[in-house]
Design brief:
Largest sheet of chain B: 6 strands, mixed
Structural class of chain A: mainly beta
Distance between the termini of chain B: 36 Å
Order of helices and strands of chain A: EEEEEEEEEEE
Radius of gyration of chain A: 14 Å
Oligomer: heterodimer
Shape of chain B: globular
Radius of gyration of chain B: 13 Å
Distance between the termini of chain A: 40 Å
Number of helices of chain A: 0
Structural class of chain B: mainly beta
Largest interface: A-B, 23 and 26 residues
Chain lengths: 124, 107
Amino acid sequence: EVHLVESGGGLVQPGGSLRLSCLASGFTFSDFSLHWVRQAPGRGLEFVSAIDRTAYSTHYADSVTGRFTISRDNSKYTLHLQMTNLGAEDSAVYYCVKSGGRSYGYDYYGMDAWGQGTTVTVSS
Amino acid sequence: DIQLTQSPSFLSASVGDRVTITCRASHAIANYLAWYQQKPGKAPNLLIYGASTLQTGVPSRFSGSGSGTDFTLTISSLQPEDFATYHCQQLNHYPWTFGQGTKVEIQ
């Protein structure tokens, strides 16, 4: 069974930094692209970032480009999201998500596994 | 970015009702569309991928259709456990955008 467990969320002041991590199990980690998706309180889902199987290609939402960096360690089955210069608009639950297919950039199979989420609150 | 517009945003229905939610894309996305169900305080759960293929374990009362720009999610007979928020998502081109969600409430 696939498991994705996020950690690293918490309360941070505006302008601060935070590093989220996601530990995966139950599948061959290096076979799939991975993503971060966030959801602000009472709002919809928002794509944040994506990384391909080898970490060669990454993609970011315009709202986080230049501030967030996605990375992965295939040997440790971990995904990371380094977040800097955080603002109130970044407050949300952040989900680690696995692609259902093995392609990057487009996917027929949807996002077939989600972590439980980690909460980031940006406030003074 | 590809915009997805879901309608309605809220839906009040009764157990046993047939429910249809639509999702319209601002650009053609072939059949690279997925539907998710989300319950309060929980992560989304994949229901349908490829616009019409049911994810393993999802009840057959759920179905999806469409291609190009217009898509629908249908629940043939609403059950108590189906009261939730439903999201569509395009996976044709980054960023993989979501619709704004449709909350299905008990009438």
